[in-house]
């Protein structure tokens, strides 16, 4: 009698496992609340043993630190990419849009969580350093140097373009939209602002 083929379990790398843990945990922190979410509940949602979860993360704060570190790393990687490109005003727009395009619907949860839990976020950042904030400041400074004009208004508009995703998330709380709409609106806002900055430089 023929036997059924054995189905091998899906094996993830350590990095993939950590990313999945962060994704599921952040979703639970956002929907159920940080304090109400236990490491046991996260492990159950992932379908793994609690010991396996603790192998990757020491606790909930450790998961948050990993989320913040990842976003900071992405900003630093974009800075490295910018440094390797020809310095032109168009690079400023390209870089801003590359940053906006790194956001996914999963990452919107991180923005919402940070907005809803400023005290907790500040406490975690005090322990590890403001990786995201420092990287974004460095990114804004680097892009400011590419602008054809650098008036205070221009510099402020550049920073608004970089943070367009935050503005779109906040505005979405008062609108009947989905996360894809939020991402599209952020991209459109950033592109419009950067086009206006480049056009203003051409006419100066």
Give your account of this protein's structure.
With 204 residues, the protein is mainly alpha-helical. The chain is 74% helix and 0% strand. Helix 1 (14-31) crosses helix 2 and helix 2 (39-46) crosses helix 3 (50-56). The model is unreliable at 1-10 (pLDDT under 50).
Short description:
The chain has eleven helices and no strands. The chain is mostly helical.
Q: How much helical structure, as a percent, in the residues?
A: over 70%
* Percentage of residues in strands: under 5%
Which shape, going by the Cα principal axes?
A: elongated
- Major sheet attributes: none
Q: Terminal Cα separation, in Å?
A: 83 Å
- Overall mean pLDDT stands at 87
| Number of E strands | 0
> What Rg is obtained from the alpha carbons, in whole angstroms?
20 Å
* Helix run count: 11
SSE ordering: HHHHHHHHHHH
Q: Find the structural class using helix and strand composition.
A: mainly alpha
Poorly predicted tracts of residues:
1-10
What topology emerges from the helices and strands here?
Blueprint: H1 14-31, H2 39-46, H3 50-56, H4 60-83, H5 89-100, H6 105-116, H7 118-128, H8 131-144, H9 152-162, H10 164-172, H11 179-203
Helix pairs in contact: 1-2, 1-4, 1-6, 2-3, 4-5, 4-7, 4-8, 5-11, 8-9, 9-11, 10-11
Keywords:
204 residues, mainly alpha, 0% strand, elongated, disordered N terminus
